[in-house]
Amino acid sequence: MAAQNLQSVPAERTAGTSETADAEGQAHFDRIIAEDSRIEPRDWMPAAYRKTLLRQVSQHAHSEIIGMQPEANWISRAPSLKRKAILMAKVQDEAGHGLYLYSAAETLGQSRDKMMDDLIAGKARYSSIFNYPARTWADMGAIGWLVDGAAICNQVPLCRASYGPYGRAMVRVCKEESFHQRQGFEILLELSNGTPEQKQMAQDAVNRWYAPALMMFGPPDDDSPNSKQSMAWNIKRFSNDELRSRFVGMMVEQVRVLGLTLPDDQVRFNEDTRKWEHGPLDWHEFQEVLAGRGPCNAQRLERRRAAHDDGAWVREAAAAYAAKQSAKQQKEYAA
Ligand code: BYC
């Protein structure tokens, strides 16, 4: 698919082909960004815009795929048939999100095979959050409520991202994330209204996932090298700190309904800035996780590699079937 897309991008639309084409392309690109309109795969785009998008969209795709692991691990231990079916559907949704996003990334000229190779070689990033362990059933609630909640907060503005295939993929992803968050909230609510032990289990899970969920939004604005340019290109619509603050505001209301508390006694609404504030986060821990030294980094990649190897026969069978179908079609056209 990537090869097809690359072939279909007219040479004059690709940055660096000729000076006149680049100047015209840049003017067209600048106009589209200024109008807050959309860049499509065949439009000319600056090489740096393509690179940034590819970085963000491929990382996002990898996050969805790696993000299946902490929850898939609980499917066989879900406490009822209903919970099992719901969790299975959620994990399948995450696989689907990964596929929409890999498809969007392919339109930028990178093959899915290359992205997957980079992931399993440990060269590509994916969200820090998925390097933490899911210890109890209540973690399924905390992941749904906090992690998918943070994802919604981050991704709803991405529905308006300037790159068409990314923004359109986000619309569907966000609809499904809303169901995910709701199911997580409902797991926590039921535990919170259960026995004292169940309530404590829910509180422990919220305590463990709260800070990592806040760090999902990325480093503080002053340490975020990519934000400024990504915002100028209308890829990111809000800064990391702005979204983190909004997320805290959402959680403050919802945690009351859950009958639980946030493990942060510094949460407050600042009347002057009109923003929610939170206590300090351990950015050293965040950098350790990004460097591959989080609690589950090695395990997540190992599992991904094993799944890739185990799935080799499926890819081979699908390719053989596609070749057979295509040969059959060509024979029919020729007849
Ligand atoms: N984890 O300049 P910054 C899900 C990196 S999946 C790891 O602020 P940017 C779900 C960043 O890449 C949710 N790395 O970067 C799935 C950069 O490094 P590089 C995944 C992070 O791009 C299954 C460096 O730090 N969501 O919800 O402007 C089950 C400096 O950062 C992280 C997305 O991918 C992190 N948390 O902003 C359940 C959303 N944060 O690349 C749920 C799309 C930062 O220069 N992505 N880094 O080497 C984005 O919105 C942005 O890329 C970010 C970072 C806000 C994440």
Q: What is the first-to-last residue Cα distance?
A: 27 Å
The strand order across the widest sheet is 1-2
Q: How would you describe the shape? A: globular
Count of DSSP helices?
A: 14
Describe the structure.
It contains 14 helices and two strands, in the order αααααααααααββααα. It is mainly alpha-helical and 335 residues long. It has a two-stranded antiparallel sheet. Helix 8 (164-192) packs antiparallel against helix 9 (196-215). The longest helix has 29 residues, at 164-192. The protein is globular. Benzoyl coenzyme A (BYC) binds at residues 55-56, 59-60, 63-64, 67, 94, 125, 127-128, 147-148, 151, 154, 215-219, 224-227, 230, 236, 240, 290.
Produce the secondary structure layout:
Elements: H1 2-8, H2 19-34, H3 47-66, H4 68-72, H5 81-106, H6 112-120, H7 138-155, H8 164-192, H9 196-215, H10 227-232, H11 240-258, E1 268-270, E2 275-277, H12 283-290, H13 297-310, H14 312-334
Antiparallel strand pairs: 1-2
Helix pairs in contact: 3-5, 5-8, 7-8, 7-9, 7-11, 8-9
The structure holds benzoyl coenzyme A.
Summarize this structure briefly.
The protein is mostly helical and 335 residues long. It contains 14 helices and 2 strands, in the order H-H-H-H-H-H-H-H-H-H-H-E-E-H-H-H.
